[in-house]
Design brief:
single chain; about 325 residues; mainly alpha; 15 helices
Length: about 325
């Protein structure tokens, strides 16, 4: 009896392996077909035959998720201003990778592909797409690293996602970022601790727990927080605590301290550009409207070393505050 059961199990397992091998062979053929279609679509796109190219790209997507080519297709759609269409491509690509991936790829290879797609989708949306989609995608990216060290883009995306979520009073997203970071293995740069610090501080400010937030930030500024640049980050986030509770005297002092405490290798000109959002907020409070306009304009167009324009995904906040300054000047046309 036991021998018969064992034989049946072996037959079933053998059939399963055969089906799996057959499926992989079919998928290899489909991947080759999809790559050819994507290359043809790219040529059509470069010849400005966008409608024909899009049809072929979608045909490729429905055949096999060739992630590099389709990720690039989504980026191209975003450049054309089709934000919704670009995100649809990314979403369909992610769905297809999750469906086919477990059969076709090794787990580590599948994670790498998903990391790239989530990262690019988040970055592109922060840069010129849908800011809400960007935050959600960044969280998807963070959640991939459960029990592992966070990817190379984690540090940058944490900064973007936390700041934009904070300015939108999106506490829920900040909580998700904090929870995700608690599951990371720490890197040599301390990314898990950095993400936890930034998200938790912003959560406390949104909840009106200003004293707790202040104590937390001052502790990190004094004793470091276990992540690279912890003192600098603490000094940069502290003014938000005081602005939140309406204490403009302490806010002004904290901004001055951040300027003086900036690393010596960074010129004061670049430091002032980086702090011009705070200068503008202080000027707006003091009804120095023209100064506020100038400061916010500087921040929106800020540049780093070698004159490279810096990305500022949360600059929508400063367009709004600059508009308030124009209103104070009674320049309603602006």
């Amino acid at each position: 009896m036991r021998t018969s059961i064992l034989i049946i199990i072996l037959i079933i397992c053998g059939n399963s392996m055969s089906v799996l091998a057959q499926t992989k062979k079919e998928l290899v053929d489909k991947e080759i077909q999809a790559e050819k279609m994507a290359r043809q679509a790219e040529k059509l796109w470069n010849d400005d035959k966008f409608f024909e190219a899009e049809q072929l790209y979608y045909k490729a997507l429905n055949t096999f998720p060739v992630y590099m080519e389709l990720d690039e297709f989504a980026s191209r759609k975003l450049k054309q201003g089709d934000i919704k269409g670009a995100n649809k491509v990314w979403d369909e690509l992610i769905k297809a990778l999750n469906f086919i991936g477990p059969v076709y790829y090794k787990p580590a290879d599948l994670r790498t592909k998903l990391e790239r797609v989530y990262s690019n989708k988040a970055h592109k949306n922060f840069e010129s797409g849908n800011i809400i989609e960007a935050i959600a995608t960044a969280i998807n990216y963070f959640e991939l690293f459960d029990g592992r060290k966070a990817g190379s883009d984690a540090h940058t995306l944490v900064g973007y996602a936390c700041q934009t979520a904070f300015f939108m009073a999106d506490r829920e997203s900040l909580v998700k970022i904090k929870i995700a970071s608690l599951k990371w293995d720490n890197t040599m740069y301390g990314d898990a601790k950095y993400a936890g610090f930034i998200s938790d501080t912003y959560i406390k400010i949104l909840e009106g727990k200003y004293k707790e937030a202040e104590e937390k930030v001052l502790e990190v500024a004094k004793n470091k927080g276990g992540f690279v640049g912890s003192r600098d980050w603490a000094e940069l986030i502290l003014p938000n605590v005081y602005f939140g509770q309406g204490d403009f005297i302490k806010a002004k002092e904290s901004v001055a301290n951040a300027r003086e405490g900036a690393p010596g290798i960074i010129s004061k000109k670049i430091v002032d550009q980086s702090l011009s959002n705070f200068y503008g907020h202080l000027a707006l409070h003091d009804k120095e409207y023209q100064k506020a306009v100038d400061f916010f304009t500087t921040y929106i167009n800020k540049k780093g070393m070698f004159g490279i324009k810096l990305k500022e995904p949360a600059k929508f906040r400063y367009y709004v505050q600059r508009a308030e300054a124009y209103e104070g000047l009674k320049q309603f046309d602006k």
